[in-house]
Specification:
heterodimer; A: about 200 residues; mainly alpha; 7 helices; about 60% helix; disordered C terminus; B: about 100 residues; Helix Hairpins; 3 helices; about 75% helix; NADH-quinone oxidoreductase subunit J (chain A)
């Protein structure tokens, strides 16, 4: 499929933008700036998707990544040292190995892209990508789509469980202990310690 | 804009993401590397859909699934960062070496 020259130029610029901003993510001093570089990289890829006629996916990418990177920047400010990039920062380990691994992955994938023979089947002229995606999501592939929704719900529950710092009866890392029925009293619903030691006849372990 | 150039761009994004995920000490920066990998995967899926798959709707569906994976990875990653920070006061991967055993 032949694209007009303007599309090719736009693709070239966006590709350079995506790669350069993706690389800058890991060598900027400020962690907040790093998350915005990642956002730029995602938006460039989203525009390329729109150039490829996948309008819904490209725009969904914008919305999702805008929100996601805001959350990421918030976490950067909350947790990380040096969020504003006031000091030089290079927090890496196994640096040479990582560079080598990244280059090897790129060379392998680029080799596949250059050497493999892929069929050339461009989009049909009368295809409406959004309609076809909608028909697929609520038609043949509805089970997959719904499964993704269920997995997202499970994730929400898991996230609340993991990040909640207290259980029902106190700190999650201290073990559960129900509160007393009167202020400062013994834990409710549990036999007293001496009763448990003395009367071992009515319960078995 | 051909399939080969699109796949090369996807390969570059995946390579950079791999480097980031392996090299960064901070948990959140590590997750950024994983996000870049998924970014490249989505681009490759859309490129195959548009130029090699004759617009089969499953190609777009695959991209949607990868997007859901990305959201799950973000949410679970941040929850784990919060949980680890709360118990160990650690925000770099070196802080939790005891988990090895």
């Amino acid at each position: 499929m032949d694209y007009p020259l303007t599309v090719d130029i736009a693709f070239l610029l966006l590709a350079i933008l995506a790669v350069v901003s993706g690389w800058r993510v890991f060598c900027t001093d400020s962690m907040v700036r790093a998350s915005f570089f990642l956002l730029v990289s995602f938006i460039a890829v989203g525009v390329i998707m729109i150039l490829l006629a996948a309008e819904y996916l490209g725009v969904a990418m914008f919305f999702m990544m805008a929100v996601e990177m805001m959350v990421m920047a918030t976490f950067m400010v909350m947790f990380m040292m040096n969020p504003a990039g006031l000091n030089p920062m290079m927090m890496v380990h196994q640096h040479k190995f990582s560079i080598a691994a990244g280059v090897v992955i790129f060379v392998l994938l680029a080799g596949v892209a250059l050497l493999a023979e892929f069929p050339t089947n461009p989009l049909p002229a009368d295809l409406d990508p959004v309609t076809s995606l909608g028909n697929e999501l609520l038609g043949d592939s509805m089970l997959i789509f719904e499964s993704a929704g269920i997995v997202l719900l499970t994730t929400m529950i898991g996230v609340v469980v993991l990040s909640s710092h207290r259980g029902r009866y106190g700190g999650a890392h201290e073990g559960s202990m129900p509160p007393g029925l009167v202020p400062g009293g013994d834990p409710a619903g549990m036999p007293k310690e001496d009763e448990e030691e003395g009367g071992g006849h009515h319960h078995c372990h | 804009m051909t399939l080969v150039t699109l796949l090369l761009l996807a390969a570059a994004l995946i390579g950079i993401g791999f480097y980031g995920a392996l090299s960064q000490q901070s948990f959140v920066m590590l997750m950024m590397g994983l996000e870049l990998i998924l970014n490249g995967v989505m681009l490759a899926a859309v490129a195959f859909w548009a130029l090699s798959g004759a617009g089969a709707p499953e190609g777009q569906l695959l991209t949607i699934v990868v997007m859901a994976v990305m959201a799950i990875e973000m949410a679970m990653g941040f929850a784990l960062v919060v949980a680890v920070f709360r118990t160990k006061q650690a925000d770099v991967t070196e802080g939790i070496t005891e988990l090895k055993h």
